[in-house]
Amino acid sequence: MQITWNQQVVKRNNKSLVLQIIKEQSPLSRADIAGRLGLNKSTVSSLVSELIEEELINETGPGESSGGRRPVMLLFNNEAGFSIGIDIGVNYLLGVLTDLSGKIIEEKNIPLTKLSYHEVINQVTKIAKEFIDSAPKSRYGVVGIGIAVPGIVDKIGNVLLAPNLDWNNKDLKVTIEERIKLPVMIENEANAGAYGEMRFGSGQDYANMVYISAGIGIGVGLILKGELYRGINGFSGESGHMTIDFNGRKCSCGRKGCWEAYASEHALLTQASKRFQGEVTLEELISLASDDNEVNTIFKDVGMYLGYGISNLINSLNPEQVIIGNRISMAKDLVTEALNDAIKQQTLVYHQEQLQINFSKLSVYSSALGVAAFVIENFFKEEQLVEQQ
User: Which residues of 103-135 are buried (b: 16+ CB within 10 A; e: fewer)?
Assistant: First the structure.
């Protein structure tokens, strides 16, 4: 019997649903899946057989019996393939190799110091190739590479502007795909961080969330009604460049008084360099703060300005949750009090009801895990999950 296009679509959709529920709720029996999805048991049995053949799920030991024969349980095969997520920061390059559930198998963290675009691309290529070589053997191998960039990324993976990296109009997706010969996805690092937190971190229980990526610059990722909001052209979240002082400090974007000129890691290091008359790192400042009142004050000032900007976002969006992530989250204990005081003072009282302010559970891994998750989802989307007819 010839299967029509509509029947193929229905089968593919059903197969995706079966795989998704096993990923999220396993161990499950075939009867469990049929009941929860409202599908015919024979349909579920057929789709499960295909997924087992494709090594995307495995059978495990029998489950509890409800009166008859004990059912065979099904598990998602996390290691059917692997994903690479790379977060390009201004002063670091963080790469992770994950399984298909987002579990980190291997990681690499490389400090960067004012490298050119081509030097950064060489480092990205090196990390990706090392992960590909070290990935455990699997049916699908490394299914793709996700790259998070602190800048404006268009829908086809071009980096239009990354001021803190001094990048303009870079065809990053094409460049990496030519070198690695795998699917590549490029995303703004704050969007990736928001998605990483929603999937794996502090945002798993919230449908409306604002993620603040506070590193050398500041980016914002928005989760609205459980979906990542990118804006009409994919450029949402550039809140680090909202003006908080028209005659204020010069920002890397060329304007004055941007939020990130006061509340970012760069702002912190700039103020600290005046104190020490030379360059210091965030890690060094954190270790010094407990015994140095001036350093402690610098952290409090950054926390205060961070709170001011967050208040603007809360007043505008009325979210359920705000998550502060990226490198400033390492200084959580030093900025929290000033940040919370600023939010309490500047946020409308009604907007503070049922609002959660959290620091990232994923720390510096939010964006790398977020782009790795995009790659995994793209893999399942691109896989036909239907035998060719």
Answer: eebeeeeeeeeebebeebbebbeebbeebbeeb
Q: Is residue 152 part of a domain?
A: yes
**Alpha carbons 334 and 31: distance in angstroms, whole number:** 52
Give the predicted TM-score (pTM) of the model: 0.90
Cα separation, 361 vs 329, in Å, equals 9
Q: What is the pLDDT of residue 6?
A: 67
Residue 238 has pLDDT above 70, yes or no: yes
Tell me what pLDDT residue 383 has: 60
Q: Looking at the domain assignment, is residue 287 inside a domain? A: yes
Tell me the residue type at 310.
Answer: I
Per-residue pLDDT at 26:
86
Q: How far from 37 is each of 15, 181, 298, 382, CA to CA, in Å?
A: 11, 37, 55, 22
Rg (CA), the chain: 23
Token pair for 375: 């790659």
Structure tokens at 227: 């979906």
Q: Would you say residue 12 has pLDDT above 50?
A: yes
* Pair 302, 335: CB distance under 8 Å: yes
Please tell me whether residues 136 and 279 are part of one structural domain. no
